[in-house]
Amino acid sequence: MTIERKMLKVLQGESVFPPPIWMMRQAGRYLPEYRETRKQAGSFLDLCYNPDLAVEVTMQPIRRFGFDASILFSDILVIPHALGRDLRFEEGRGPLMTPIEAHEVERLDASPLHDHLAPVYETVRRLRAELPPETTLIGFCGAPWTVATYMIAGHGTPDQAPARLFGYRHPAEMRKLLALLADCSADYLIRQIKAGADCVQIFDSWSGVLDETSFEAFCVQPMKRIVDKVRMVHPNVPIIGFPKGAGALYEGYRGKTGVTALGLDWSVPWSQARRLQAKGPVQGNLDPLRLVVGGEALREGVAAILDNLAGGPLIFNLGHGITPPTPIDHVEAMIAQVRGATR
Ligand code: CP3
Question: What is the Å distance from ligand 1's center to 79 Cα?
């Protein structure tokens, strides 16, 4: 039996119509069943490190909507957590960590990495066994720069000023931190792939706050380091890079980093998106707030993506994660419009 995983076909450069669809943050608080399991888990991190519960919440959006792909339920900050940095998630405040200081970088110890992350690998193994055969399983990690922004500030910030200041004040320590995160992230992805992930996505959610020189040093170089390392072990596994907010710097990103596909945010203009798609698969890029509002705002956004990008290799997605106030019937309407599309 040959298994047809639509998203993998697109990642191999094929145009599939209608395009495969999944959503960033598809397991999350907009779903009542997620909120229920989350309550049962106690804390968000307990949910990430408990394979029974992590498998359950990963499966929830697949059961409800039948998406073409499923993304492992975890968080990008399990890597610094595995390196011994404290981490907690507070309702309404997001992640909280003790800010790392420059002199602490050389003391970071990667030896507990795989023991700490063993439950995540177990979750991936169970998912591949439980998912329908036609559903693509996506592994993921955060890009070193984005993970570093939380380690340095200790929480989310609107412009990542603490991490930018750290990079300018302590360039050697910044390079060292990003290289360590890149090596750990590559090892983490390699294990996820061994456990059954069909492809992986690397989230660089904060790549849009840097000047071109720092974008090269903090985003492009560490991303290339991960891609090179993963490819040495798994040369044929597709890698999606998502340099959110990169703007004009999306140009050249695929070539410089070696990623297979580009995740686009909603601010990428169609002319640029089509130029990027001419060189390989793209994923995106509905404004998640169109999905909150629904109706004409949603129909118009979905139609524009299909009109501009569905003729080439496209994975239909949002331009960033779904937000908690999104009504479920809007998600259903989006899926119906994409799957019901005609040329
Ligand atoms: O369904 C999925 O997409 C898989 C799971 C997933 C989560 N986080 C679960 C989560 C993925 C892929 C992530 C990635 C992630 N985590 C990123 C990159 C993507 C992005 O959104 O930019 C970042 C920056 C983080 C760090 C993080 N985790 C933040 C800033 C927050 C707080 C914001 C929020 O939405 O609450 C989290 C918490 C988090 N990660 C939740 C979920 C479902 C909500 C926490 C909860 O349930 O209490």
Answer: 14
